[in-house]
TrEMBL record, chains A, B:
PANTHER family: DIACYLGLYCEROL ACYLTRANSFERASE_MYCOLYLTRANSFERASE AG85A, ENTEROCHELIN ESTERASE-RELATED. It comes from Marinilabilia salmonicolor. The keyword Oxidoreductase does not apply. InterPro entries: AB_hydrolase_fold, Esterase-like, Ig-like_fold, Mycobacterial_A85_antigen. One of its GO terms (molecular function) is acyltransferase activity, transferring groups other than amino-acyl groups. This is Enterochelin esterase-like enzyme. Pfam families: Esterase.
Amino acid sequence: MNHKIKTLLAIFLISGSYSFAQSDDKIIEDFEPSSVNQPGHEYPMVNSEGRVRTQIFAPDANYVKLDIGGVKYDLVKNEEGMWIGESAPQDVGFHYYQLNIDGASVPDPGTLFYFGACRWGSGIEIPSDDQDIFAVKNVPHGHVHEILFPSESTQTSRKAFVYTPPGYEKETSKHYPVLYLQHGYCENETSWARQGHANLIMDNLIAEGKAKPFIIVMTYGMTNEIEFGGLREFDITPFQTVLVDELIPYIDSNYRTLKNQENRAMAGLSMGGFETKLITLNRPDVFSYYGLFSGGVYNPEEIKNHKNLKLVFISCGSKERPDGVKNAVSELQEAGYNAESYISEGTAHEFHTWRRSLHQLAQLLFK
Amino acid sequence: MNHKIKTLLAIFLISGSYSFAQSDDKIIEDFEPSSVNQPGHEYPMVNSEGRVRTQIFAPDANYVKLDIGGVKYDLVKNEEGMWIGESAPQDVGFHYYQLNIDGASVPDPGTLFYFGACRWGSGIEIPSDDQDIFAVKNVPHGHVHEILFPSESTQTSRKAFVYTPPGYEKETSKHYPVLYLQHGYCENETSWARQGHANLIMDNLIAEGKAKPFIIVMTYGMTNEIEFGGLREFDITPFQTVLVDELIPYIDSNYRTLKNQENRAMAGLSMGGFETKLITLNRPDVFSYYGLFSGGVYNPEEIKNHKNLKLVFISCGSKERPDGVKNAVSELQEAGYNAESYISEGTAHEFHTWRRSLHQLAQLLFK
């Protein structure tokens, strides 16, 4: 698994310039509890620099480390047996992390748990200027349905989450467009609604009149078993069959959707962008809006026969390959396509880049 | 917190006769991975005796313990730095547990995480003869909606989960009865659908024609802040307001419900049973079916003015106070009430008792 993750990082993750906390760094003492802590837990905390401070009671441990952003930071034991310490400043947004106690990698019991890095484990939220986009506000809220849909090709009942916009249950004659939205490698079908807050982003945009109400469908992209060294031989067929031939018909038959290409979008982050690209190229008859978040680009030649294509949206963090994204979109625009780029300022290959990307894309869809 | 939990146990939990694994116990070597492990994880495992065996890599630890059922079992380190060991046999069904590494209580990173014991932490499933009641089968599946409903009394948007039976989205003219179903102390609104599998129990019963399709609503009972020493002074009013005056109107306005007392039930486990009793006594005009799972009893005098009461269902595990439940139900029956008791064989104050209780109650509701 570790090898896979490293290879993944080599392929998808670009930047990540980590500044180590030096012993003479002055730490600003304005720490507050992370917004994604377990109920009643004060730690972990975050300060205005984006440093993470955590603590754990481990009176008989030889050492405890905070393992975040690819760096392990030593915690220090106090007289009561509590280990405490902090990381260097982290980028704004959401990060997966863990503790290491005498060599054991374990979740920090202070936090809620998220599926990322191929495991259910700890997460932390570094406040950002624009976190308001996914705040729980006093606006009408959509619902997130957990569903099991039948899949003949895999002989399983498969899980998906379906966001229905505010009013869906009441306005029983209205039909809606649908965005199929994919997570990244080492994430799963829960990631977009939990750490991505796709539902809250939509609730807020709809309340502000900035997005058309639409349904979002999030399922497991069958990505986590992929050997990344073998990406070129990656076979999209099994997932394409599940998505296009099984899930879409289930959604169209169980939800009040607009059942045509013009009202169907697909987007994904990282590996999910790669899947979006492969599926839209293989099946140019299914979706009219394509979104790649930190997940590659299209060139004009690849999509020249896509007659019902209405929008190509490509994004990444400013700490990834922003020039690659901007150049690709310029080329598409010059070739006459409706293409948009978006660069998330100050973020890398992590979920805040993708929350912002969804926030941008949602305002362009189905208009 | 520990004090609260101990007091809770003193009040609600009765039996629990734990047999310690002796060094000369012969352990049956037929361990298999627990069904609620993280993807790709072999450990923890369970054998046919119900013993739990787990392992964790902690090369520099001084000791590691498996903490389950109120007992801490020592694990033993092998040459590679892996700690491994097992518990005494556990009751069938679902148990919360944790690891202890050099004094630090942490989740076992091998398992999925559940909210119980007032924390998100590890869970394990000991196979039972009747686990088929919540198996994922090739039958039509209902959906579990995560919703946010507005609560004026608490000035918050509050979370709830809503199970809609198979076909709900399609049969848009049909209206359904509703069961309001409460978790226990130190659990939350996620517990009934995750470790309780309320949705799968219903899907299977409906497919077999054994239960009428109905909606289930599960929200947070505001219980976990209660000081259990102060149970007699426990004020149900805040939660009663949220449930009866805010959540029910939201559900009735957003879902296709049958909006009357005859088509409304309330049930709860442990502390949720206590809440069910208090709310149904305070508001005899709201529900027609009452269910207490390991959560107290009604006496005939208490409900003598409940004109629209159709059923009282009271249950517990055989390792709790089965005689108390049976006697209370006999008294109710003698007084002319439609009352049913159910005793879960071989289980104590844990979720398998409550899954089975729901399985029984669901077959009696709204008929």
